[in-house]
Amino acid sequence: MLNSTIVMCLLAFSHLPTMCCPSASDNSGIGARELQGKWAIETVEINGVDMTEVLGGIPWLPQEFKIREHQLTITNVSKKSLVAELVVNKKRGPRELDVRFSGGYLMRGIYSIDGDVLLVCINRDHDCERPKRFSSKSEPVRAILILRKSQD
Questions:
Q1: Are 130 and 107 in contact (CB under 8 A)?
Q2: 47-96, pLDDT tens digit by residue?
Q3: Which tens digit of pLDDT belongs to each residue from 8-41?
């Protein structure tokens, strides 16, 4: 059985109302054009275990991620959305991303992109250290997401 805290923190999406993010002008990060667009979840791994099947039955689980400029909109299967500020830095290796929700909740991660496939490794706890490698094994607060770019 999944710990409700782990599921809730998967993407800080559990029953949260729509939130607003700061304007792009407040964003000091380096944007990545390659991330712009809509992305669908293909795989979710937590603590080294593929959780895609288990999490697929949860109605509020994120279904689509939309990135526009410095804004990340996460939409669930019920079409409810959550908006966060997205800051990326592609000058570092591995490339870095920060997701900041209203109220200051911050998740730090790294990403890699290959064509229409986006690999994200993110620490789901607030203000945790950024992952250094793409692995969730022995890391219960870390998630690996594989997303595929949707055709608009």
A1: no
A2: 888 887 777 666 556 778 999 989 999 988 778 888 999 999 988 789 99
A3: 334 333 323 333 333 333 333 445 788 999 999 8
pTM of the full structure: 0.76
Q: How far apart are CA 149 and CA 147, in angstroms?
A: 7
CA Rg value for the chain: 14
Strands 81-89 and 37-46: unpaired
How far apart CA 130 and CA 148 sit, in angstroms, is 23
Alpha carbon distances (Å) from 58 to 8, 64, 147: 11, 14, 18
Asked if omega into 94 is within 30° of 0 (cis), the reply is yes
Give yes or no for a contact between 43 and 121, defined as CB atoms under 8 angstroms apart: no
Judge: domain 4-149, CATH 3.40.190: no
At 149 the three-state DSSP class reads strand
How would you write 3-64 as a 3-class SS string?
CHHHHHHCCCCCCCCCCCCCCHHHCCCCCCHHHCEEEEEEEEEECCEECHHHHCCCCCCEEE
